[in-house]
Amino acid sequence: MAGVAGVNDFQWCFSQVKGAIDEDVAEADIISTVEFNHSGELLATGDKGGRVVIFQHEQECKNRPNLRGEYNVYSTFQSHEPEFDYLKSLEIEEKINKIRWLPQQNSAHFLLSTNDKTIKLWKIGERDKRAEGYNLKDEDGRLRDPFRITSLRVPVLMPMDLMVEASPRRVFANAHTYHINSISVNSDHQTYLSADDLRINLWHLEITDRSFNIVDIKPANMEELTEVITAAECHPNQCNVFVYSSSKGTIRLCDMRTAALCDSHTKFFEEPEDPSSRSFFSEIISSISDVKFSHSGRYMMTRDYLSVKVWDLNMENRPVETYQVHEYLRSKLCSLYENDCIFDKFECCWNGSDSAIMTGSYNNFFRMFDRNTRKDITLEASRESSKPRATLKPRKVSTGGKRKKDEISVDSLDFNKKILHTAWHPKENVIAVAATNNLYIFQDKIN
Amino acid sequence: TGNRAVLSTSAEEKCEKNANLVKGEEVKLKAKYPGLGQKPGGSDFLMKRLQKGQKYFDSGDYNMAKAKMKNKQLPVAGPDKNLVTGDHIPTPQDLPQRRSSLVTSKLAG
Q1: Which residues partner with A434 through β-bridges?
Q2: pTM of the full structure
Q3: In B, which residues are within 8 Å of A19 by CB distance?
Q4: Which residue from A199, B8, B65, B101 puts its CA 20 to 30 A from A70's CA?
Q5: What share of chain A is helix, strand, coil (3-state, %, to 5)?
Q6: HSE-up (13 A, CA, CB side) for residue B3
């Protein structure tokens, strides 16, 4: 992660792919969220079937120092189940919308996982010892006859095969009328926020029967509804600050010290629109699908349908950087509206040093942008380029009439192969890319 | 269809070209769907988003239909079993099964 090296100086190599190669993808297997923990040791995925799979980075092999270790399955559990709210006649999907790790405070790991309505705090703990030599029961669990016990012994801890157990420690339910799109752990490590289409709530991690509503944009008359909340995040080091984005392409920064209800923002970020370019599609493609603070806390990044924008928190009237993800789709907006792809919600992420950003696209392509050199690269997550340690070849979409060799034309793109979720290791050049039901892990070749 | 190679580096010209591309797409869409709403990103689209997961059932209709079923043949659910509105009266057989995936994820395989 040198500050000077650009994205094209990286040599991204295939490391691993997880998941089945079936042609027929079961809906439950579609990955819906990917997240590294704060050290990068653990990588969690959530899917539409409500399951969470956690991978752990194994120690590097001493014999081959030029390879980083691999990620292997550490724990897997069913986080959420499908539900039916009979009172409201509402079907609640078990799909995991987001996973967020808590910072590690002891030997156990904690994460928050959420579906549309309920957030759960999971503890993932290891057990590698077991007590043996109980007084009141045998090794196989049978109770001993107390009258036959003639001496006392102290149970001894004996090693056992490592067991990783996931248990739900808290269930935060019944606080959201609309569908939860975001959760974010606060830097105070005590509270977190959850956001749905119209409201944002603040929770204490220890308290499940109460939460504070801090943003409410529901109009008195629903006929007047013009925008919804699309994403929200807590500031990485200022525990009183959070942001939320809207379907109209705006971002509001709020300070919880100013008022209990943060309906009025402290800062309002919006890029002025050129009125001559206004069209039926303008608002839809300006809808922000993801917002992420930089690790430094000085910038934030937003993803709309066609671009990624970096904003300086000190400048509200326009972004400081704009990166086009797949501008060639402008000439396809009609069909993308008809097949609903225009409503796809792409996420985006920063690398550990905030010098590069990454986001997904169609045809299993994903894009990386270097903020220093302004160079960009398109890579593909595919089984074809999945040979061990094979370097990924840059891909290119041809927009003009002449298609060069190795380029792919816009009309040949597979819009069913969407990369909506990607994650970048917090410290190293290791990335996780979710391609429908497969999880790809790529690493930068260590020189 | 008019995708000429753009050699100009002027940001303004690029914006104009983009605007024309998008306007062209808008014309295409309006030609296909003349009744498309005046507020494209507005209420209707947002209300649909908010109502995701909503299921409809009228127990009165259901019970009346059960009573009538002995005499009259009612329309049966078509391929799209989720569409339980209009003339079709849902029966327990029509409703999509609530399933829970207790199968381990293939990522862990």
Answers
A1: A421, A439
A2: 0.88
A3: 106-107
A4: B101
A5: 10, 45, 50
A6: 15
What does the alpha-carbon distance between residue A34 and residue A31 come to, in Å, rounded to a whole number? 8
**For A330-358, how does the pLDDT look when each residue is reduced to its tens digit (9 = 90+)?**
999 999 999 999 999 999 999 999 999 99
Q: Which has more confidence, A84 or A432? A: A432
How do the residues of chain B divide into helix, strand and coil, expressed in percent and rounded to 5? 40, 0, 60
Chain A contact for B37 (CB, 8 A cutoff): no
The answer to whether A126 and A75 have CB atoms below 8 angstroms apart is no
Pick A48 or A402 by higher pLDDT.
A48
Alpha carbon separation from A390 to A284, B37, B75 (Å, rounded): 38, 50, 58
When the pLDDT of each residue in chain A is averaged and rounded to a whole number, the result is 93
pLDDT given for residue A139 in this prediction: 80
Of residues A93, A223, A226, nearest to B53 (C-beta): A93
Tell me how far apart the alpha carbons of residues B89 and B96 are, in angstroms, rounded to a whole number: 14
The pair of structure tokens assigned to A17 is 């792919």
Nearest CB to A53: which of B24, B101, B105? B105
Q: Is B51 on the interface with A (CB under 8 A)?
A: no
Q: Can you give the pLDDT at residue A108?
A: 97
CA distance A262 to chain B (A): 22
Query: Does B100 sit within 8 Å of A333, measured CB to CB?
Result: no
Closest CB to B25 among A76, A82, A334: A334
To the nearest whole Å, the CA of B94 is away from the closest chain A CA by 16
- Of A436, A445, A426, which Cα lies nearest the Cα of A35? A426
| A183, A232, B87 from A196: Cα distances, Å | 9, 9, 34
B108 interface with A at CB cutoff 8 Å = yes
pLDDT digit string, tens, across residues A8-66 = 678 899 999 999 987 789 999 999 999 999 999 999 999 999 999 999 999 776 666 55
Long-range contacts of A217-224 (CB under 8 A, 24+ apart): A217/A263, A222/B47, A223/B43
Residue A309 scores a pLDDT above 80: yes
Q: Which of B51, B82, B107 is the best residue to mutate to test the A interface, defined by the most A CB atoms within 10 Å of its own CB?
A: B107
ipTM of this complex > 0.90?
no
Query: Residue A84 half-sphere exposure, CB side, CA atoms within 13 Å?
Result: 10
Strands A241-246 and A229-234: antiparallel
Instruction: Please name the member of A223, A333, A437 whose beta carbon is closest to the beta carbon of B25.
Output: A333
Q: Which residues of B touch A247 (CB under 8 A)?
A: 41, 46
In angstroms, rounded to a whole number, what is the distance separating the alpha carbons of residues A326 and B49?
25
